[in-house]
Amino acid sequence: MQFRTYSEDDAPAAVELLRAAFGDWPGRRVLAGDRPADFFRWKHEANPHGRSLIVVAEEEGQLVGMRAYMPWSLTAGGAETEAVQAVDLATHPDFRGRGVSTGLLKHARVVLRETKAFALGLPNEMSRSQSGKAGWRVVGRMGVWVRIQRPLSVARGIRSMRGPAQEEALAVDAPPAHAVLAEAGWAAELLGSDSGENDGRFATATDLACLRWRYQPVLADYRAIAIPETGLAVFRLSRRGRLNEGTVCELIARDRPTKTLLLRAVAEAARFDYLAAAEPLPGARMLRSPIGGRLLGVAPYRDGVEPDPAARGSWALSLGDLERLELC
Q: Are 245 and 238 in contact (CB under 8 A)?
């Protein structure tokens, strides 16, 4: 068995391996679930932060394992940090128990320790023991803040909310996000003016190209509302239990009054029971949700990174960022 770095010619075999390992990859969890080759290209080749680092295991010309890392550029206090998101760890069912995953990890670390500060991801209960062996540390749970739109509906349906959000085929009075972003050249300057609000915490280094890539109709049906030259909101409607959730993925504006106007427009775009965001939004009475949120983990590749990526208070990720971690 050989361990090597992936090449573009490996793409069809890599998709075949993922489908053999996981079944109907990427499956119904993402909008492009029936287009695995397109999803793979979007995920690993089209990312404006760079192509994914993918290492593969090969035996007699067959790909039998892979481990992929998507580049993720972060900014904190004006300084950029290069990280990766750990994704697509797959071993062919016929080759499990033969040290494939361990060999891939060793091969990847050689490169990652030279070029990246750490990896980030969402470790689940099943993977935490294995993640610990691979150097992962639990940062903490990234909470969710909610603004109640329909109190009676929420009171009746709150017990049904546990579990992942599902797409919901209800009317949304807002255009697709990718269409809005394609026409929003003015947002490039807006993104620069909104970049100093994170108090030295890690946030995604986002430019217009990154937003246009991120909100392609691949992971989910994202919608957007824009106030030209002034503000932009990206959101989606999903079903959590019996309730309609409005996930506020991005809220970018020149000033707080504009953010308040955008949030009001989002609230009126569909019959939401509540709106959800990663942090309290301006001009909105929001409560910390007792359920939901994502458990963030990091795997450091070098010491002395500031702020400390293993500290919960070092992070200012949007709900759009956390959804990417969850769905990718």
A: yes
**pLDDT tens-digit series, residues 121-147:** 998 654 555 555 568 999 999 999 999
- Residue 60's alpha-carbon distances to 1, 104, 106, 195, in angstroms, are 8, 17, 21, 50
Q: Where are the alpha helices (DSSP H) in the chain?
A: 11-22, 36-44, 100-115, 128-133, 151-157, 177-183, 187-193, 208-214, 256-267, 319-327
77-132: pLDDT as tens digits = 889 999 999 999 999 999 999 999 999 999 999 999 999 999 999 986 545 555 55
CA 250 from chain center: how many Å? 12
User: With 0-12 CB in 10 A as exposed, 13-18 as middle and 19+ as buried, what is 125?
Assistant: exposed
**Cα–Cα distance for residue pair 266/324, rounded to 1 Å:** 20
Q: What does the block give as tokens for 261?
A: 């106007």
Concatenating the DSSP letter of every residue in 260-309 gives HHHHHHHHTSS--SEEEESSPPTT---EE-SS--EEEEEEESSS--SS-T
What is the spatial distance between Cα 85 and Cα 74, in angstroms, rounded to a whole number? 11
